[in-house]
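Good morning,

Attaching, inline, the backbone tokens for the sequence recovery test we're adding to the shared suite. The designed sequence is right after.
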């Protein structure tokens, strides 16, 4: 009778493994400090890339553990700068309001867009200098401020043209609208400039 196959890690199978008929198919990993089948020492339990971080006052391995990447600790949505940035928040709020009021009437959207841009520029400067965080909020305020300003200008121009057209052509349509239907078209052609 032949002996059971030799374990590649130099260990004898345990008593429960002998009757399975699957001896050696799935081998166990090497124990701490034993040599693996590839001739390298096992790294289980060793400090290093995935090991435990050194205790306070203990000499480290020179490798950074999880969470020690050297990045500044920051809150949700923050940046590497320190602290909050109220100017950035104000610029975003003003920028969003400028978009809203640009759609509703134009002129107030222009004013709020200018205010958003005026607060976003110093907010971004503070972020660049490292005196404040929230770079994305400051950029959002600048972008929404510019969009509100441009949209407000367009709506204001269109409303202005509508008012001028109403004042110019309103009396013509009012006067010709009192005539019978067959005469209205001729009346409008006679009264229109050009």
């Amino acid at each position: 009778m032949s002996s059971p196959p030799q374990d590649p890690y130099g260990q004898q199978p345990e008593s429960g493994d002998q009757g399975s008929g699957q001896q050696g198919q799935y081998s166990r990993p090497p124990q701490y400090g034993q040599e693996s089948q590839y001739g390298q020492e096992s790294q289980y339990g060793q400090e290093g890339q995935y090991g435990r971080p050194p205790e306070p006052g203990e000499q480290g391995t020179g490798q950074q553990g999880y969470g020690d990447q050297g990045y500044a600790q920051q809150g949700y949505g923050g940046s590497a700068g320190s602290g909050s940035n109220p100017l950035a928040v104000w610029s975003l709020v003003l920028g969003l309001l400028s978009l809203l009021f640009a759609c509703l009437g134009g002129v107030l959207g222009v004013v709020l867009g200018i205010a958003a841009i005026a607060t976003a520029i110093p907010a971004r400067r503070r972020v660049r200098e490292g005196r404040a965080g929230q770079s994305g909020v400051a950029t959002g305020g600048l972008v929404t401020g510019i969009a509100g300003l441009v949209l407000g200008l367009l709506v204001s121009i269109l409303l202005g043209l509508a008012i001028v057209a109403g004042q110019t052509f309103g009396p013509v349509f009012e006067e010709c609208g009192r005539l019978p239907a067959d005469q209205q078209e001729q009346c409008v052609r006679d009264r229109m400039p050009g």
